[in-house]
Design brief:
With 197 residues, this protein is of the alpha+beta class. Helices cover 19% and strands 38% of the residues. The strands form 2 sheets. Strands 2, 3, 5, 6, 7, 8 and 10 form a 7-stranded mixed sheet that branches. α3 runs antiparallel to α4. 26% of the residues are buried.
């Protein structure tokens, strides 16, 4: 074997080794949307009354999206979500949710079966934002918080094609935020509920 052939083989070997793993170019693209929701609580009125909760109507919701994670069954999130290996940084900034549904982003995700999707809402999600991670206007008025909030959605979602669409049901989270009476309650209300897909 000549030197020229050996050099070509070495070059091609290095090229293939350099391209193995760690790339997202071959992963399917997932379009992520929030489903439509009702601004008024959808829980049974008797349940709302039994719990002593008066139904408000969410007039507006603005979320400051910082990052997103797709999790497989039994896969946990790092105790510090900013350091989780599955993080996908987002450049969405603040997004005003629409009751008719909201298109969020397209992301590259490895093929697999996922059982949970998480979003981190943070006050510094992009330059020029209000400085709040979450803003809700309901029957109690304008409620805001600067705390990091992780909202989650659970179900089964299979990524196996070149492109997929994921519609996230947010009604349970809206119902929880309907009951907030102050900004200090927003984190526990949002994290205590789970959306679906």
């Amino acid at each position: 074997m000549g030197k020229k052939s050996l050099l070509i083989i070495i070059f091609l070997s290095l090229l293939f080794i350099g391209c193995a793993g760690g790339t997202t170019s071959g992963n399917p693209v997932v379009e992520v949307n929030l489903d439509s929701y009702s601004p008024t609580p959808t829980a049974k009125p008797s349940l709302i009354t039994q719990q002593g909760i008066s139904p408000f109507a969410v007039n507006s919701i603005v979320m400051c999206f910082k990052r997103l994670r797709f999790k497989m069954e039994n896969e946990s999130t790092n105790g510090d979500p900013t350091q989780d290996e599955d993080n996908i940084d987002l450049e969405l900034g603040e997004v005003a949710l629409s009751p008719s549904g909201t298109s969020l982003t397209n992301v590259s995700v490895p093929k697999g079966i996922y059982s949970r999707v998480e979003f981190d809402l943070e006050k510094d999600c992009s330059v020029g934002t209000s400085g709040n991670s979450l803003q809700v206007t309901n029957g109690s008025g304008l409620l805001t918080t600067e705390e990091r909030i992780t909202i989650k959605f659970e179900g089964i979602f299979t990524v196996d094609e070149s492109s997929e669409i994921l519609n996230l049901g947010i009604q349970n989270i809206i119902n929880a935020l309907d009951t907030a009476t102050s900004g200090v309650e927003l984190k526990s209300k949002a994290e205590g509920a789970s959306g679906s897909f």
